[in-house]
Amino acid sequence: MNDASKPSDEATSSVQNAVALAYQAGSSAPTVVAKGKGLVAQAIIARAKEHGIYVHQSQELVALLMQVELDKNIPPALYRAVAELLAWLYHIEKQRDETTPVTPYITTAKDNLKIIP
């Protein structure tokens, strides 16, 4: 078998999961707006990239967020972790363009993951 016909590590790894979160100013907490496994996760990630939305990888956070129902706020137990991620994202966005508002983000992971937005 030549190198071109060998499956990539990514193709043979466990199913990928993705969660998309959105936060509106004045809301009590970020909301899970999309989540999925496999092809759905790939579509979520592709759509985020098409729209210039940052994709963050965190196996642990994805595992926790996958347990949140769609269109529901994240639980209080995750406020700190998500707030730290949003603060970091805000910093990145501000450096990139002072006029660009914070965008929703996607968290992705592989191997035994459960996810959020």
From TrEMBL:
UniProtKB keywords: Cell projection, Cilium, Flagellum
Family in the record: Belongs to the type III secretion exporter family.
Entry annotated with the keyword Mitochondrion: no
Superkingdom, taxonomy of origin: Bacteria
Organism of this sequence: Solimicrobium silvestre
SUPFAM superfamilies for this protein: EscU C-terminal domain-like
Any Pfam family matching the protein: Bac_export_2
Xref: InterPro entries: T3SS_substrate_exporter, T3SS_substrate_exporter_C
Any one GO cellular component localisation term in the record: plasma membrane
UniProt record, GO biological process: protein secretion
Designated name of the protein: Putative cytoplasmic domain of flagellar FhlB-like protein
